[in-house]
Amino acid sequence: MRIDVLTLFPEAVEPFFASSIVARAQASGIVSIRCTNIRDFAADRHRSVDDRPFGGGPGMVMMCGPLFDAVEKVERDEPTPATRIMLTPQGERFDQATAREFAGRDRLLIICGHYEGFDERIRQGLRPREISIGDYVLSGGEPAAMVLVDAVVRLLPGALGDDQSADNESFSNGLLEYPQYTRPREFRGMEVPPVLLSGDHARIERWRREESIRRTGDRRPDLWKETTEPSS
Ligand code: ADE
Q: For 194-199, what is the mean pLDDT?
């Protein structure tokens, strides 16, 4: 997979992509991530990428020109067609199903906004998929780009050391993950549930499934409902 991130702050996202699982996935050739600075496509000597909104009002708006030029240049650089993604609190809510969908694409092009918002013609002309990572407003799309890339890359085959480990996690089956324990068996008076030490794999599986269901019902009854009563 190839991922391009278009941002005004590559220095904010590059260290993240150079760490942990995302870095390892790049080192093993599973994904290649490249950041492009939108400001490099500014047309004037002030390197402007934003301007005041027509009609007045607070803040600045991201201009069309530099962003269109950046998208077109980056897309020309490599022939694989890209799924364009724009990060904005106005987008559809990002979730595990969307992460899975994006993990199936060959190429993602992620646009991070800043300032008060995007000139509407960016939506109109580039027709990106608009994605929000939650109902709160960030100062820019960069933290959202890190969230999206992380959630997608860890689903790529081979990205996690153990291929199975993405299957048992929270959300992967519509349930939250069961409680996990590691050494020591007893810590400050808190014990590991004996079933996990029993060696009886069928019983362990059953216990984990029950705990997952209980936990989902307690904490996220909305998820539980979605799983048991799928909306047609
Ligand atoms: N940019 C600003 N806020 C955002 C959010 N909640 N999700 C995605 N991009 C954003």
A: 98
Q: Write out pLDDT tens, residues 145-161.
A: 999 999 999 999 999 98
Residue 163, pLDDT score: 57
Interatomic CA distance for residues 93 and 128, integer angstroms: 14
Ligand 1 midpoint to CA 133 (Å)? 6
* Cβ–Cβ < 8 Å for 151, 96: yes
Is the Cβ atom of 135 under 6 angstroms away from ligand 1? no
Measured distance CA(132)–CA(117) in Å, rounded: 13
Whether the model pTM is above 0.85: yes
Total residues found in the chain within this entry: 232
The larger pLDDT score, comparing residue 103 to residue 226, is at 103
State phi, psi for 212 to the nearest 5 degrees. Answer: -60, -45
Across 72-176, the runs of DSSP E, i.e. the strands, are: 83-93, 107-112, 117-118, 129-132
Phi, psi of 88 (to 5 degrees): -160, 145
Pocket test for ligand 1, best of 61, 85, 87 (most atoms within 8 A of CB): 87
pLDDT reading at 227 higher than 70: no
Provide the residue type at 198 as one letter. Answer: S
Residue 177: closest CA among 133, 223, 201, 209: 209
Mean predicted lDDT score pLDDT of the chain: 94
Residue 232 tokens read as 């047609």
Whether 141 is in the pocket of ligand 1, judged by its Cβ within 6 Å, is: yes
